[in-house]
């Protein structure tokens, strides 16, 4: 990679030669780990090619070309050529992916975030236009490309704001990003809600990817700033929007194999990838505000659905990508259940015990190492949760508490199964 950069990209001097960056764009995207929520904190992505690019001064060259291109766009506001705008977006996305998880200088970060915000706003307009008009076949391909481009831009934004130092630097533009991203949350709302903001479109993989990226970005913003969560809950009724998707996916996939195949033809199955993003956002909201935990608990069937999704797996599918998505569903469901458990009162703890919370933790510990998304830190946390449960029960003493009489808990505590 080092030699390639020196021979091919080391002599780029003009904006037109930036097109050569296409040659490494895909490599950078594939070598960047997108951020994931773990223990209510987002882990930062990291570009594995960063050291090579830093050593060959390619990052400095990209920064120079990026500032030059954005200056040209500001001077020529009347020019709206698609190629010019896409070139700037390509540079911004590439730079943000390269700098994944690292602190970016404010001089570069602020204009980059403005480009991202404008890109999101443009995507919303295109989606509304596509929803309202009858689109010809030749035009659909253009929209599909725009959906994919916007999704990649949102993923690059994830890698940037997962470092909170960057997030705190963009106080002026983060609200614009949030407000521009909110309409994307209303893609294909459940019809029974009669949502006035609904954007109805035919589901496609690119659209699902865009929705997932938007939900991840909203998760980060809500985890750091409670005011964004209140807007989602109170003004856009987030829980009532996502609950039908979560419950439907949990109910369909809990059916036997034959019934599942028949049922999937009758019911429009929600995208597991989008559901994983929605549950991640729900976990951030529950972690930041206790009142949101009560809303989740009071939503009929939602808690039970989350417990079902922790065991989400499609035996009829052996595709590695689908397995990764299933792992994301299980991981986000565990994080959401953990957030609710951590901030729930006695009534919520009792509900969790009745839904099999202790058995769920025991199963995860007993099968530890058998699943690629499990690791020692998660197993240690599960053991810590059980230890905390027993500690709480010990301090109950002689007080009346239904937890001490729970049959399921008694079974687990009185008859432990010790592996040989």
Note the main attributes of this structure:
420 residues, two-stranded antiparallel ribbon, 70% helix
Task: Please provide a written account of the structure.
A hairpin with a 2-residue loop joins strand 1 and strand 2 (41-43). 70% of the residues lie in helices and 1% in strands. The chain is built from 21 helices and 2 strands. It is mostly helical. The model is unreliable at 4-11, 79-85, 262-266 and 394-420 (pLDDT under 50). Among the domains are: 1-72 and 83-174, no CATH class; 347-420, no CATH class. The relative contact order is 0.07. A two-stranded antiparallel ribbon has the order 1-2.
Strand adjacency order, main sheet: 1-2
Judged by helices, strands and strand pairing, the structural class is: mainly alpha
Distance between the first and last residues' Cα: 49 Å
Oligomeric assembly: single chain
Percent range for β-strand residues: under 5%
> Would you tell me the overall average pLDDT?
72
Q: In total, how many beta strands?
A: 2
Q: In DSSP terms, counting alpha (H) and pi (I) runs of 4 or more, how many helices?
A: 21
Please trace the helix and strand order, writing H or E for each element: HHEEHHHHHHHHHHHHHHHHHHH
The description of the largest β-sheet is: 2 strands, antiparallel
Uncertain spans, ≥5 residues at pLDDT below 50?
4-11, 79-85, 262-266, 394-420
Helix content: 55-70%
Net shape = globular
InterPro entries: ARM-like, ARM-type_fold
């Amino acid at each position: 990679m080092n030699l390639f950069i020196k021979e091919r990209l080391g002599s780029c001097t003009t904006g037109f030669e930036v097109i050569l960056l296409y040659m490494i764009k895909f490599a950078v995207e594939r070598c960047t780990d997108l951020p994931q929520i773990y223990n209510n904190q987002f882990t930062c992505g990291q570009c594995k090619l960063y050291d090579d690019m830093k050593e060959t001064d390619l990052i400095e060259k990209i920064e120079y070309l990026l500032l030059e291109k954005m200056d040209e766009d500001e001077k020529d506001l009347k020019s709206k050529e698609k190629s010019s705008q896409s070139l700037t977006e390509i540079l911004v996305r590439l730079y943000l992916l390269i700098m994944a998880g690292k602190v970016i200088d404010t001089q570069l970060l602020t204009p980059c975030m403005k480009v991202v915000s404008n890109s999101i706003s443009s995507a919303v307009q295109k989606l509304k236009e596509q929803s309202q008009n009858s689109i010809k076949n030749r035009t659909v391909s253009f929209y599909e490309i725009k959906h994919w481009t916007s999704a990649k831009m949102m993923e690059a934004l994830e890698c940037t704001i997962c470092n909170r130092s960057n997030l705190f630097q963009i106080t002026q533009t983060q609200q614009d990003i949030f407000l521009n991203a909110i309409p994307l949350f209303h893609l294909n709302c459940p019809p029974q809600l009669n949502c006035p903001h609904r954007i109805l479109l035919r589901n496609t993989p690119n659209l699902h990817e865009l929705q997932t990226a938007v939900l991840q970005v909203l998760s980060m913003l809500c985890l750091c700033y409670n005011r964004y969560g209140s807007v989602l809950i109170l003004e856009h009724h987030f829980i009532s929007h996502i609950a039908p998707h979560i419950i439907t996916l949990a109910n369909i996939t809990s059916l036997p194999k034959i019934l599942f195949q028949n049922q999937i033809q009758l019911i429009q199955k929600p995208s597991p990838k989008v559901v994983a993003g929605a549950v991640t956002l729900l976990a951030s909201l529950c972690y930041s505000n206790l009142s949101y935990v009560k809303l989740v608990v009071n939503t009929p069937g939602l808690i039970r659905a989350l417990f079902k999704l922790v065991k989400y797996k499609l035996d009829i599918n052996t595709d590695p990508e689908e397995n990764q998505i299933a792992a994301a569903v299980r991981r986000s469901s565990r994080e959401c259940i953990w957030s609710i458990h951590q901030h729930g009162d006695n009534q919520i703890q009792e509900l969790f015990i009745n839904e099999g919370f202790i058995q769920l933790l025991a199963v995860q510990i007993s099968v530890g190492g058998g699943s690629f998304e499990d690791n020692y830190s998660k197993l240690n946390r599960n053991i810590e949760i059980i230890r905390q449960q027993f500690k709480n029960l010990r301090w109950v003493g002689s007080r009346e508490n239904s937890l001490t009489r729970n049959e399921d808990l008694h079974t687990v505590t009185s008859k432990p199964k010790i592996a040989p």
